[in-house]
Amino acid sequence: LGTGIYMTFKLGFPQLKHVLHGIKVTRGDYDDVEDEGDLNHFRALSTALAATVGIGNIAGVAIAIYYGGPGALFWMWITAFFGSALKYAECTLSHHYRVINDDGSASGGPMYYIEKGLGPKWKSLAVIFATCAVICSFCTGNMNQANTIAQTFASYNVPIWVSGIFIAFLVGIVIIGGIKRIAAVASRLVPTMAILYVIGALIILLTHANNILPSFLSIFKEAFSLEAGWGGLITVIMWGVRRGLYSNEAGQGSAPIAHAAAKTKESAREGAVALMGPFIDTIVVCTMTGLAILSTNVLNTTNETGALLTREAFRSGFSFAPDIGSFIVNIAVLLFAYTTMVAWSYYGDRSIEYLVGPKAIKPYRWVYVFFNFLGAILPLTFVWNFGDIALSLMTIPNLIGVILLRRLHQIILTEHTYLLNHK
């Protein structure tokens, strides 16, 4: 969050200056099939969003509000705003320092801009990042998602091992095909699932319109409340920032790997596309979840948390048809988590390729599928705690690289000039 604040002021609020340009780029205004890379801008954004719009938007928001109160949602918004500038910086860097392989495919990410930007003496930091990214791909982007799916459907008496085998099979049939198949699936499922989920939340808000304003007031009031003392305020901030960063992944170094594959000659264009990620993920989807929970007042009527709390909110919100509310959350959990698992496999295989070489990619994918099954059957607490540790291990070397890369400022300011002159 601190690095995001620094980038926001250093780069002159790119999340405000370049968001409209990012929309134009994403819709294809500047696409050129002759440009090097694997994906067009829309598919690159879809792949990145597939990894970020996941169970954090359903279970993570509910956990933040359950333990931190309504004010935690405000601090999730803060992480999204400043995280957008950080994601703009890291994704511009990733695309700038990417490599085009002999087969025409692109490889990029923090490991490349750390080594190429800081120089060979920093290769050890790049190796640390790539190693942590492989570990994190097994945990945050894989086991956590599988565990949530299994736990959700266990409430319908589906054995977790059955869910585990089914999920692993669905993941395997896509990821074995590589980034183009992953992007094809993501570009179809991500918009569909997001629209379905947001429409469901909007229906709840429309049927509980009288609770919308009180919900917003409670968010802003409790975001700065000292009724429980400074410790209480710190708890609110901690839960909001923790779950916000988990949800939008700003600074984690994962999204830059996807955006490095975009077809464009101008790295700033992909940076402008990338900065929209936290807005879509946190400002839109997470806010819908939070308002659904608060407006239905389920915090006072159930002891559930995580995805089950969100499901109770949708059941309550769809009081005229509770099963429809359950269905929306269940299908959202399944699709959000599924696309996250699929997209994270790409982050892992780019990292293992950097560490070992192309020959390690296929074995990695099979191990990834096995860990998917493990995530479904292992205890929830173990999986989530291990996932949070892995996420931190991946984030730290990336942020060190971004902060130390002094050429970053020159590169991005030059790219700024390009964007301002090519609106």
Explained architecture:
The protein contains 20 helices and two strands. The protein has a two-stranded antiparallel sheet. The protein is globular and about 60 Å long. The chain has helices at residues 2-10, 14-17, 19-26, 41-52, 59-68, 71-96, 110-118, 123-154, 160-175, 179-207, 212-223, 229-248, 255-259, 267-274, 276-296, 306-317, 322-356, 361-377, 380-404, 407-421, and strands at 99-100, 106-107. Helix 6 packs across helix 11 and helix 8 (123-154) packs antiparallel against helix 17 (322-356). Strand 1 and strand 2 (106-107) form a beta hairpin. The model has no long low-confidence stretch (mean pLDDT 84). Helix content is 77%, strand content 1%. With 423 residues, it is mostly helical.
In short:
This protein has 423 residues and is mainly α.
